[in-house]
């Protein structure tokens, strides 16, 4: 009876999710307006009049994957700069500040050139040039009105203003009262129309500290850096989004300006607005302000693709910390026809306490405190990784995770998923998708991302139909073509006894 009730509940959930998905798409189409401005920028407006507020997400189709050696970490750096204001915000005297910032760049170029001279470097001259550069920074800082951009948003009732940089995109978002729409349109375009790279080197220091905290001082961070760079030989996904330390110590505000000019162009941006807005009133204001951004060529697509992996790769870290095990397999981009199959496998293997990895490694064998799997790492616009992993319980090693994880992968390859299990997976995937649409801010981000990746926001809802069409045969086929040992990169840490304990043992 329990099995029957469980199955009936799953069927009911499926019917609800499927019906809701169909109704949502039809109703959302009626409430959604999409327009491409003359300068190439795409705007998506979706009406939701439940409360007098709106949320927005601006997606710039550029992230760390667009960086090249020498400027890694620069996409993230510009995210910081986007909150520093413009020639109209954040300064007491922009004419004087502009001249002062030009002197900063001139002084930095001279200092950087001398300190990186491969031969014949004059250390005394390096110190002199560094002092001149820092003096120029101090002179420019006198004109800065700290955090003025954020303060204007706060005074207008804005909440949740933030941003993030990923491998594929840089995203800016916030929530505002509906009666501040025009102010928002003005502020949001100021950062792309006329950004000022003030306090650049101060923020560069902040990013370096961020890298030390997230990666160099974190066992999982250290392992992830080694794991990803080992997984990719050619594609920029192998480069950490936070940047390499030497680049963070070297790139300049001039480099950041060049990156901005190339990638922050209207045709490479999508703005999604969701909430208490009426397109007939909002779109003219969008055109008035966002239309100020000059038209420019769309950046060329990436040329480099990752070649097929022909043999397993392994990276091992010795750590005086909790062991961790990871293994990743190359898979196609999110636009691939089998993307829904990979989503189903992820849910099947690692979503919640009913997932196969949890039941096997955590609940039954008690080998792991955590067991997981995820795909779309470190990005999903380009071919990426499907990753499995586990954190061993005390008394177990990373190598103890290998056999049970591979046993579950082999089950995918050799045994069909049962109809009940597949139906449960589909239901949960759909429910998760619908939950993403609950909030204005979540929906704005999803719409902007779907419009950027697929050229049509409706693709967000079409995922429901694609999940519905996944079969047990699809899962076996994709598992066999993807989870090949020669397509695998393994990364793990093993506990290294502290030096004091080692000496005592000897």
Which key phrases capture this entry?
five-stranded mixed β-sheet; six-stranded mixed β-sheet; Cytochrome Bc1 Complex, Chain A, domain 1; 506 residues; 2 domains; 19 helices; alpha+beta; disordered N terminus
Topology of helices and strands:
Layout (H helix, E strand, L loop, with lengths): L1 H29 L1 E5 L5 E6 L5 E8 L13 H8 L12 H22 L7 H19 L6 H8 L3 E7 L4 E8 L3 H13 L6 H17 L2 H13 L13 H4 L4 H11 L5 E7 L3 H12 L22 E7 L4 E8 L7 H12 L5 H9 L3 E10 L6 E9 L9 H13 L4 H17 L4 H15 L4 H10 L3 H11 L5 E8 L3 H7 L1
Parallel strand pairs: 2-6, 7-11
Antiparallel strand pairs: 1-2, 3-5, 3-6, 4-5, 8-10, 8-11, 9-10
Helix pairs in contact: 1-15, 2-7, 2-10, 3-4, 6-11, 12-15, 12-18, 14-18, 15-17
């Amino acid at each position: 009876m329990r099995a029957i009730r469980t199955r009936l509940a799953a069927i009911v959930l499926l019917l609800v999710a499927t019906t809701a998905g169909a109704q949502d798409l039809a109703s959302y189409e009626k409430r959604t307006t999409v327009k491409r401005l003359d300068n190439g920028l795409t705007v998506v407006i979706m009406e939701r009049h439940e409360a007098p507020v709106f949320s927005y997400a601006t997606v710039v189709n550029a992230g760390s994957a667009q960086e090249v050696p020498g400027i890694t970490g620069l996409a993230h750096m510009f995210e910081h700069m986007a909150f520093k204001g413009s020639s109209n915000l954040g300064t007491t005297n922009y004419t004087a500040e502009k001249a002062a910032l030009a002197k900063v760049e001139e002084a930095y170029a001279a200092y950087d050139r001398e300190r990186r001279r491969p031969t014949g470097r004059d250390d005394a001259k390096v110190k002199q040039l560094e002092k001149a550069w820092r003096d120029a920074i101090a002179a420019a800082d006198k004109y800065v009105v700290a955090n003025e951009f954020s303060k204007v948003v706060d005074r207008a009732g804005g909440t949740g203003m933030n941003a993030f940089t990923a491998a594929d995109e840089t995203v800016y978002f916030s929530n505002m009262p509906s009666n501040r729409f025009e102010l928002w349109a003005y502020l949001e375009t100021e950062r792309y129309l006329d950004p000022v790279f003030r306090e650049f080197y101060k923020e560069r220091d902040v990013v370096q500290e961020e890298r030390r905290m997230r990666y160099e001082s974190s066992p999982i961070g250290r392992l992830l850096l080694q794991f990803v760079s080992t997984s990719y030989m050619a594609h920029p996904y192998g480069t950490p989004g936070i940047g390499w330390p030497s680049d963070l110590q070297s790139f300049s505000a001039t480099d950041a300006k060049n990156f901005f000019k190339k990638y922050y162009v209207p045709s490479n941006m999508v703005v999604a607005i969701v909430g208490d807005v009426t397109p007939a009133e909002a779109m003219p204001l969008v055109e008035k302000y966002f239309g100020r951004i000059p038209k420019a060529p769309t950046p060329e697509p990436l040329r480099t693709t990752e070649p097929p992996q022909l043999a397993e790769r392994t990276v091992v870290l010795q750590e005086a910390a909790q062991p961790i095990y990871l293994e990743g397999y190359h898979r196609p981009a999110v636009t691939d026809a089998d993307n829904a199959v990979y989503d189903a496998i992820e849910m099947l293997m690692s979503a919640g306490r009913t997932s196969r990895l949890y039941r096997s490694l955590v609940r039954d064998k008690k080998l792991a405190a955590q067991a997981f799997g995820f795909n779309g790492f470190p990005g999903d616009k380009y071919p990426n990784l499907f990753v499995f992993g586990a954190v061993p319980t005390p008394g177990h090693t990373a190598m103890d995770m290998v056999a049970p994880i591979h046993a579950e992968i082999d089950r995918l390859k050799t045994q069909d998923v049962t109809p009940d299990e597949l139906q449960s997976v589909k239901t949960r995937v759909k429910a998760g998708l619908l939950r993403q649409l609950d909030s204005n801010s979540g929906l704005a981000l999803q719409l902007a991302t779907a419009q950027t990746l697929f050229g049509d926001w409706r693709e967000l809802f079409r995922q429901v139909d694609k999940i519905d069409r996944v079969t047990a045969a699809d899962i076996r086929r994709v598992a066999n073509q993807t989870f090949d040992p020669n397509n695998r990169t393994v990364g793990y840490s093993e506990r290294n006894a502290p030096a004091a304990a080692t000496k005592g043992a000897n």
